[in-house]
Amino acid sequence: MGRAFEVRKAAMAKTNAVKTKIYARFGKEIYMAARAGVPDPEMNQGLKQIIAKAKANQVTAEVIKRAIDKAKGGSDESYTSVRYEGFGPNNSNIIVECLTDNVNRTVSEVRTCFTKSKSKMGVSGSVSHMFDSVGILSFKYTDDGAMLDCLVEHDVDVQDIEVEEDIMTVTVVPTSLYAAKTAVESLIPEVEFDVLENTMIPQNMVSVEGEDKEMFDRLLSMLDNIDDVQNVYHNVEE
């Protein structure tokens, strides 16, 4: 299987996590995007993009509407984006992205997860330089030549196109994600995206076994239980 397939599989596994976690994650992002501008996706490009991502992750229209209505209602909640980096079992690399209304609480909770799984938090930049930031789009389509021509016509910075069975995975630079989405929709008007997101891909993978595997699984489970955690990236083979 190719690299793009593994990326798609990992992204889809994340998408299929507990729905309440996914809904909460996108609810925060939609709320913040709506507060940052007009709470109308037709007049707020950032909000429109977040909603597109939410729909690709099967977030319901009700959840989206509730988050926008919350912003319209003048809620004074405010969230800050923070990123933590660290080292897990067998010197694995881990990045934790959070959206929080209390940074002190969040860093304490994340640090506890690392400590209780025999892992160690690092300083900013200690891990992220070993990951590539990319945009991923995955959908049903097989003509990679036609797709490449279309993406180029839309000035999309394409890094890779891969087809596995009848699923195409397009990798682009993060800033081209929504230009790529527009291009794909122009070629396939009824397209449904399995994956539509910016993510981080490790440059090198490691394996963990035995007690290391138990500690790594424990770390991921504990992080998943923190409400403020939005995304977790790592370089452990699964």
Task: Write a concise synopsis of the structure shown.
The chain has helices at 3-15, 19-35, 45-56, 61-72, 103-116, 144-153, 177-187, 210-224, and strands at residues 80-87, 93-100, 120-122, 131-140, 158-164, 167-172, 195-202, 229-234. By secondary structure, the chain is α+β, with helices and mostly antiparallel strands.
Structural account:
- This protein is an alpha+beta fold and 238 residues long.
- It folds into three domains: 3-72, Orthogonal Bundle (Arc Repressor Mutant, subunit A); 80-129 and 204-234, 2-Layer Sandwich (Alpha-Beta Plaits); 131-201, YebC, transcriptional regulation domain (Alpha-Beta Plaits).
- Helix content is 44%, strand content 24%.
- The protein has eight helices and eight strands; from the N terminus they run H-H-H-H-E-E-H-E-E-H-E-E-H-E-H-E.
- The strands form two sheets. It has a four-stranded antiparallel beta sheet with strand order 3-1-2-8.
- Strand 1 (80-87) and strand 2 (93-100) form a beta hairpin.
- Helix 2 packs antiparallel against helix 3 (45-56) and helix 2 (19-35) packs parallel to helix 4 (61-72).
- The longest helix is centred in the N-terminal third of the chain and has 17 residues, at 19-35.
User: What proportion strand?
Assistant: 15-25%
User: Would you identify the regions where 5 or more consecutive residues have pLDDT less than 50?
Assistant: 11-17
Quick one: CATH class of the largest domain?
Answer: Alpha Beta
Q: How many domain regions?
A: 3
